[in-house]
Amino acid sequence: MKSSVNLSALHDCRDAFTQTLEALAAQDERVVAVCNDSVGSSKLGGFRDKWPERLINVGIAEQNMVGVGAGLANGGKLPFVCGASCFLTGRALEQIKADIAYSDANVKLCGISSGMAYGELGPTHHSTEDFAWLRAIPNITIIAPCDRIETAAAVKFAAAHTGPVFLRLSRVGVPDLLPENHVFEPGRANSLRDGSDLTLIANGVLSHRALLAAERLAEQGIAARVLNMATVRPIDTDAIIQAARETGAILTCEEHTIHGGLGSAVAEVVVDNHPVPMTRLGVPGIFPPTGSANFLLDEFGMSPEGIAASAAELIKRK
Amino acid sequence: MEPNDLRQIANRIRRRDLQAVFEAGAGHIGGEMSVTDLLTALYFHVLNVNPDKPLDPDRDRLILSKGHAALALYVTLAEKGFIPKAEISTFLQPHARLNGHPNRTKVPGVETNTGPLGHGLPVAVGMAQAAKLNRAGWRTFVITGDGEMQEGSNWEAIMAAAQFRLDNLTLIIDHNRLQQGARLADTNNLMPLAPKLAAFGWAVEEIDGHDMVQICKALAPEAVTPGRPRCVVAHTNKGRGISFMQDNVAWHHKVPDETQYRQALAELEEAAV
Q1: Is residue A195 part of a domain?
Q2: For residue B232, which of B144, B128, B111, B139 has the smallest C-alpha distance?
Q3: A2 falls in which pLDDT band (50, 70, 90)?
């Protein structure tokens, strides 16, 4: 059977991010970009060339970068604060808590090259704790888009929404999954495939792997529902409860430690509302060995085959 | 406003602050007394702010980065009319909006939530940059403690402000030479502060942070050096105005007992102009 996932055309979601940001900036002079010497890695070169004054590069200083974002918002600007996700969230976590979330500053935090996108650069450059860190802080919408279409839609949402948003963006190529006219709704999962035997829940670079896993499972006669859960907070409680009720088992997969991320967020809803067997795939609480992002995802059991195998084991526990 | 009027207001703020600390059984009285003259001069002489329009886009911004002195800010905001004076008696009470550290979503006139040190100056840099981008004339002021300058985030912001040529930004360092646990000199001695700021490209002036004439002059628009952010190192006394608290590290957040309260109040009343 022909796959619904076109792996021959993979896209770097950063391109959709900056194209959308530039389109917004052309219409709205409040839009500014703030970065930490990351013009290249955040793909802000085009933005800088068009609006040099509106690209505020604070140098290698993430705490200041986030504080400056809060101040710009206070002064009426609409700042997109961009930096490698590991440094943006880890280095400036207290600024995110106090200056952005607690102060309710209208700042959009853009974690670039999130997850294990920096692969061989190693765990210092991996951002596999950001869901957990930010999920523990009130008043931040956390979004991990699955493809270039959802990235563009999420950037538009972030600009229109008043309040703190964290966009978790990768640089690892992903195929298109959502329709071109997709409109992002915060806190709403998208069903990528229906099924009744179990539900696979993923986001970011894992969503297409989950969909491919569902195709492998279909070949074994197992009907897997696939939910793309881009918003980790607020999470789509209704879709999770419905999945638990209707399919009786849930497997999550994420480019994040299994402690405190998407899987944990789903498990909290399941435990509180409709307990069913679950498996949480992700980085298993270790500092990953050397390897590319895709190698490491495979290594941690999140190749389509790996996810399918875990799913087949999971439904035995139903 | 004339210096004598400012002194009277500052005296009134000190007395109300003292009473609130005594009644709440908590506060940071030493640092509140050291920053009171600066806050008074700012709100009653320097800042273009309107209590009826606390979110006016063209208002001047002030951040009290040493957020533990929140009570001094609350009393000043009440004097200015941002919040009712009667509300000061709710300081630290359950569900009161007058928390131990200022909250912008609850208290009109507060620009950003402070408390953890080293946060105000980076936010102020963003504000000043926004004014530059908007071609707006409003100014940004931030008050830090001197011990607070040990936080590295301040120095990130100091570099950026000079790079961005933010001459619409003024940093006021409440230089009382004492931090929570000991003297600065015995902890992590940043002194002298002025040459350090100057070396980073700032225009620096040292003043007596309790002299209203000097404060107002140092914060006047005429004092600005085009193209350079401004730092006013305000030499102050922790516990200023209360003899047994002044320059005494024990009074960082100690609460006076009944006898001490009576004595402190009497001293402040006597000093009232």
Answers
A1: yes
A2: B144
A3: confident
